[in-house]
Structures are given as structure tokens and as C-alpha cells.
Amino acid sequence: MIRVRTIAVALLAAFLVLSPGAGGAEPADGRIRAALDDIARYEQQFPAGARERAANVKRAIRLLGLTRERLDGSPNRADESWLEADGRLNALLDRLNGMLAGEDSQPPSPQHSSATAPPASATSASGASAPAAEMISQDRVRIGKLLRDIRSSTETLESNGPKPFQDPGYASGREAIAERYRQTLERYAGFAGDPDVVAATEALRDHETLIRAGKENAAAVLASIGDPQAALAAIFARQSTLRPPPPPAFPYVEGSVDAWIRDIARVRKVMVEDHGNLQALADSAWLPLNRGTPESGAPYDAQDVGMLQGALVREV
Question: How does pLDDT run across 231-265, given as a tens digit for each residue?
Fold first, then answer.
């Protein structure tokens, strides 16, 4: 009985030592947790001493920039878990930049890392993965097309930026696309060690990282500025009735010039403030162009904002 208990204690100790994240601080909030997940994934994908293509390293650095934004947006920057994530992220970025600066950015050898070539023991033990040679040609074509589709969709996300995620329809549409990719990829679970399947899996993770970052950015922006359309409606309504007062007629009544100057200053102050508010909304809000006009019920777009800004500049 004592021997069994001793073995159990030893196994428990080994589990605690080897468990991922054991000994680390519990994430203080969801932003820190998501950042730690990203960091762990890229630490596994780009282990120290590994060789990787420069294009893959640059993409990882770009995506980790989003991780940095997410982490810096945490309200718990003094927490131990934030400090841990910050240190690991900085170390990971240093490693990746070192790969670009040195020979580590050269094309990888066939025996690369666990991220692209899972150990044979894990594959054989599960019996789930089949050698790449056993994949029939039709499946090879399909997985290749899936990889191209994911990368193309990722490029679209990068080109569009995070602003469109302020539109719930855009966000749900992008999530639906990613879900279709994932369902298609699950058909190849039996080829988990195949290079094309591994590449598609990594590409989908990057794709989903961009979607998650876009939604978080949109939520933060909207929490800061409120409803952009309501803010624009208020500005346009105010400016539609705000006009500089006419100058006093000659001969001047005592005090009329001073009153006119005060009115001019008041109107100019409001115009300058509204111009600044318009610029802030143009910089942060999603205002896609549309064919309608606000008078017909269409939402305000970037062109409407630009036209009012131009009019205010001329007035001021």
C-alpha cells in the first residue's frame, strides 16, 4: 500500500511539473488569457533554434502585434499574469526578430519542428494520422484549395483592417466563413501530420486570431465613442442651423460690434469643436460609402463627413 501511495504521489508531482501553465499566475482577465494562448502557440511553432521561412516569421510578428495590442488593453497591467505574458511576448518577439536577422530565416529543413512535423510516436500512438503519401490526389487538390482560400481570406481581413468589425453583420459573416473552413479541415483529421494539413491548420489559426482581434478592437472603439451614427446626426443637425451672425449695420449702435465679435467667436468655437469631433469619428468609426443620403434614411458615410469638414474649414 505504501509503495502504491508513493508511486501516486510521484505521478502527481510529475503531472504538476509537466502541465502547461503550471506554476504560472492565473490570468487576471480574458485579454491576458487570450494573449497567453497566442504566445504559447507561437512559442511552440517557433522554438528556439528552429529554422523557418522569413515570410512565416514576418506574418507571426505581425499577428503578435495584435496580441500586444490586446495585452496592453488589459486593465490589470500590474497583475503577475500580465507581467508574465509581457515578458514572454517580448522574449518571443526578440527570438522572431533574431530569426529574420540571422540564418534562422532560411527555408526549413524537412525535419523542422513539432509545429509542422509532429513526433512519430504521437502519430503512431493515436493511429489517427496517415502518411502524406496515402492521401488521394483529389484530397490533395482540395486541401491545397482550402489553404489558398484561407490565406486569401486572411489577406482580405488584413487589407480591410479592424474597422469593419464594428458592423455586426460583417463580424458574423467572417465568423461563418472561418467556421466553414474549420468544418472542411476537420475532414482531414486522419492526416494531421500531413504538411498541407498542418499548413492549413496554422493558416486557419492566424485567420481566427485576426477575427478575434478585430472584434475586440471594435468593441473597445464603440465603448469609447458610442454610436457613431448618433454622434454624426447630432453634429449635422447642429451645423445645419449654426451660421455666423451678420455684421452690424452702419451707423453702429454702441456695443453692437462687441456683441457681434462675441457671437462670431462663439460660433467659430462650436465649428472648430465639431470639426475635431468629425475627424475623430472619421479616424475611428466604420463609415462605409453608400449610395443613399442621410435625408433618405441612409447612414452617414465617410464622404458625408468629408463634405461637412470641408464646409467648416471654409466657414472658419
Answer: 999 999 998 888 888 888 887 778 888 888 998 89
Contacts of residue 61, Cβ cutoff 8 Å, sequence gap at least 6: 93, 96, 97, 100
> Residue 6 belongs to what domain range?
1-105
- Asked whether residue 122 is domain-assigned, the answer is no
Q: Which of 74, 88, 86 is nearest to 42 (CA)?
A: 88
Cα(102)–Cα(108) distance, integer angstroms: 13
Between CA 72 and CA 41 the distance in angstroms is: 19
Residues 191 and 239 in one domain: no
Query: Do residues 147 and 221 share a domain?
Result: yes
Q: Could you give the number of structural domains in the chain?
A: 3
What's the CA gap between 215 and 166, in Å, rounded? 7
Predicted model pTM: 0.58
Confirm if 305 and 275 have CB atoms less than 8 A apart. no
Among 290, 296, 285, 269, residue whose Cα is nearest residue 230: 285
